[in-house]
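4.2 Preliminary Data

To establish feasibility before requesting continued support, the project team ran the inverse folding procedure on a target of 168 residues. The structure was first converted into the token representation described in Section 3, and no sequence information of any kind was made available to the design step. The complete token record follows.
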């Protein structure tokens, strides 16, 4: 991607959680994307790969890093987000880890704490590989970005368990 502002380009850098310059991450990202040059198609391919190739289970040590997750091929929402973010960054798509509440409607509507990535595709777009949700609507309630240097509105996160979400 070209013509990125500094505010967006900073989400191409590796972090302790999403090591986008690690050789295994870079190799896997290039294998997934192949010759695709359209960032939207590449982002969807990465999200689909993460959804299909990671077992939905707890990570190897609580909140595992992208490298640990790629090796273990398993994780919960935080591991899915960390890996998708690292893979996207490795091929030049800005991405950031996000946390908040997601509303899930199945037999009974419910809400829960969740982590997901946002990718820059001309605008910030949610691609949730943990839930396989690539056409995201207003069911995601943002609480914070889980990135170094971002403000930590932890007072919002402390509301978890004390907040009641009513779905009608």
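Position-by-position output of the design step:
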């Amino acid at each position: 991607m070209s013509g990125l502002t500094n505010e967006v380009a900073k989400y191409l850098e590796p972090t302790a959680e999403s090591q986008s310059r690690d050789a295994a991450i870079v190799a896997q990202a290039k294998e997934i994307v192949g010759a695709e040059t359209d960032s939207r198609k590449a982002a969807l391919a990465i999200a689909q790969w993460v959804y299909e190739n990671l077992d939905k289970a707890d990570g190897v040590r609580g909140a595992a890093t992208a490298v640990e997750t790629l090796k273990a091929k398993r994780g919960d929402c935080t591991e899915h987000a960390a890996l998708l973010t690292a893979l996207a960054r490795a091929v030049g798509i800005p991405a950031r880890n996000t946390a908040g509440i997601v509303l899930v409607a199945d037999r009974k509507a419910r809400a829960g704490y969740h982590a997901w990535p946002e990718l820059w595709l001309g605008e910030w777009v949610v691609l949730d590989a943990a839930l396989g949700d690539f056409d995201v609507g207003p069911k995601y309630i943002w609480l914070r970005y889980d990135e170094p240097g971002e403000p930590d509105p932890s007072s919002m996160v402390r509301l978890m368990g004390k907040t009641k979400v009513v779905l009608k």
